[in-house]
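In response to a reviewer's request, we include the raw inputs and outputs for one of the modeled complexes. The two entities were modeled together in a single run.
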Amino acid sequence: MPDSATLPGLEDALALGLTAAEYGLICEKQGDAVGRAPNQVELAMYSLLWSEHCAYKHSKKLLRTLPTEGPHVVMGPGENAGAVDVGDGIVCAFKVESHNHPSAVEPFQGAATGVGGILRDIFAIGARPAAVLDSLRFGEPFDGDDAQRGARSRYLLERAVAGIGHYGNSIGVPTIGGELYFEAPYEQNCLVNAMALGFAERDRLVTSAAVGVGNAVVLFGASTGRDGIGGASVLASAELGADDDKRPTVQVGDPFEEKKLMECSLELLQRGLIVSLQDLGAAGLTSSASEMASKGEVGIDIDVAKVPLREPDMEPFEIMVSESQERMLCVVEPPDVDAVLELCRKWEVGGAAIGAVTDTGAMRIFSGERLVGEMPVRALVDDCPLYDLEPVKPTRTPYPAPKALLSQNIPPSQTLLALLSCPNIASRRPLFEQYDAIVQSRTVRRPEQADAAVLAIRPLGTHARAADGGEVLDGAIPAVAVSIDCNGRRVAADPYTGTVAAVLECASNLACAGAAPLGTTNNLNFANPEKPHIAWQLTEAVRGLGDACRALGAPIVGGNVSLYNESAPPHGPIYPTPVIGMVGALPDARHAGRLGFARAGDAVAIVGPFAPSLLASELAKLCGGELPDGLPAIDVPAVAAAQAAIRDAVRAGAISSAHDIAEGGLAVALAECCLGGGIGARVRVEAGFFGAEAARATGRGEIWSGTSPAAAATLFGEGSGAFVVSGGEDALRALAQRTTVRIVGTVGGETLLIDTGADEAAIELELGELRHAHGALAGLFA
Amino acid sequence: MRRFGGPRMKFGILQFPGSCDEIDALHAARRVADAELLWHGDSDLKGADAIVVPGGFSYGDYLRAGAIARFSPVMESVIEFANAGGPVLGICNGFQVLCEARLLPGALLPNANLRFTFRQVALDVVDGETAFTSACVKGARLSIPAKHSWGRYYANEDTLARMRARGQVVLRYARGENFNGSSDDIAGVRNERGNVFGLMPHPEHAVDELSGSTDGLCLFASMRRTVEDRAACA
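The model returned the following structure tokens for the whole complex.
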């Protein structure tokens, strides 16, 4: 029997983040199983597996409402990553995960290990990681009154970007896209979400379920140290206090170690040497081994004395909960153990058989001969209580109005320049230039070339080769497009509609590249769900997520939840931020879309059910507008129809460019199309052009931007489902059979000229002026 | 000995733990010839007619870029191969390795901006008659991506003067494109003998229309021509 001389008590359980009731339940389960309260090892393991991070105890009931099945889904939620069929026997595995709290404490390592963790999830199912995208949120970088506050946000941004680049660049996985917003509510709780995707042959996928009683359990990769102890419960499942010194619980990443681990894992799988595979992430060995046992409905014995250690004298519980990075756990048939360890030596990664699969249904932890912990797998993994949320819509928004940075009465040209240079819209080039976007030779569209990144499924050049070598074939080059997005301010204004809009935005991005959605991943970043108004945000957002994914036929194949992203007053909760990642199929990369205008003389059209509104828009924010209570409803089928029309036109090569209208509205979208192609345009959009839509949705009529409220809404209003498209006029008119098309102008010249009818040249700006404004973020990395 | 119409020439692409662009280089080389990977721990070059030392972070590059890789068994063979006149191309980390191995003059220092930077750059072909550029046109401008943290080419003034006099500067960043602060805008250099060449930008990432440029292909084609011409003369 385990040593029960000095059993921990309730106080220890509370310190580990458990509630008194949860501790009581654990004592009951352990009493039934081993006849006593949990000892130190057991309590440590329960506290991690019963943490919010591992047990999803405040979100699991909601997540069960999401659509997870569809014709393309090969692997759904519950595995290390989801996977969709992309044809020809190949699957695309993908997932997004957060590393928010570690990044707030130590942004470089926090972000780097976030990338490392999500990459391990991809190769844990047997796919070779092919791309990373990131989704970042920070406080305002330029805070007029308080230089220090802006400086902290800039520091977090700079170090997080450096960390992502350090890891992704060094391991040879391209970072092909991402998104970034700056908003005051993220000042104390930045968000660092990383998405990865990879490709595998369908019949080579591996699951994490431990199988085969008597099989060996092999730990391989880096050695185990004291880093990140208790990360899952301490960092990921509680609000961060302002003065907590939590740096020692942040893990440190080593991309070279992970590169070897990745190559080793993939070669082990390719040679058929392992039965199941699981990465070690949050909660280390505890979580990996228990979840493998749970999925396989078996027991596992582990001997911590066999775990290669980075430092001597580690306690058994420390070994079990360490979050040292770059480690994997696999199940191996006994005759293959030597071959597995031999391959580990080839790749210069550590490897040790540390345990065995049993039929006991228990996790048993040994230290040599001594049994130091014994827990029923079911109690550990499945019996954590799930909580019902108690959602209540707040009577008023918990978010203070942003600081007004822009006068409402400046001329439209000045407004456009202000928008182009504002941190949420300015070019992301200073960030993405720090990432390798092309390694692995799949990248067909890099950042700022199209609304979504486009990756050929096979490396470029390998399609064009016939089996006998050398002969070039003229065939289609199948590809995927991928996008990640979420405008948290819009979700804060209306959690349901804002989340629907985020899903639609991803699908619109895919449509502009020519891709149709196959599946979706999500990272729900929210504040404390035990508070009724946060519970309401979460509930409404998940409802919107489910509805939108169902409507688009883009089921959820995996995701992650990050709660408790809030700080004590005056800081408060983050904006609710359900980050959406979507992968779509593109039959032929040779017809991948572009966002920039391409040819002088092309017609310019606004396509789709555009209903621009200044509510919760970027312009409203710059003018200091309070968050509205609700956003205009979205006609989802109409948006989906517009997306389909655009997608088919792109695939057919019928149009020259397509770009969706998002933050900053039509004027910003037009400017981006001009900058993307290095060519101007002449456009006429009369105030009230969008008729009742604009007038109804204008909301804050006092924003009139030197013209009129209707003109301001037309130029700068935001809404889902509209696109700026260029091409031959006939091709654009042909789209009218399927969606709304308004031909508004012509591509050409060195100037963007927008005429609003009332005002012959409401906006007239040279490309150089647009480019200068759009380059405003360069100063952040000077 | 090879003849026209005989077996195709073969590239050997080195693979270190931490190499990232070796598969890209393999596919690029295969567009013009045969190619195979050569494992770092194995000193056998497997009959390769030309060697590519690829990009990445060999052995993690924790000491100094390229500093460890030069001591690997395969590099000992490559140094022998180079000393015997065999063509060797170093790309990015491979360029760093060749400088560390003293097969090429100068050194690569951290970029002037002290950051990893990825950018499509324009390169001017200074010399179109080397073993690595004979299929390019002198004065041609190549669009090739660069991506590195340690890409600032440095050599002292005497060395630079000697290199210029001996025609060892093969590629330069076009005006305004030298983002890393390299001496004399140098992007690619050869050794005195002309059989070893290194550059920071990545020609293997500019061999397919869909990547936006095929300008890198001429470097691989030049190497093939060099090997085949030599075989034809022999």
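As requested, we also summarize the result in words. The first strand of chain A starts at residue 73 and ends at 75. The two ends of chain A are 62 Å apart (CA to CA).
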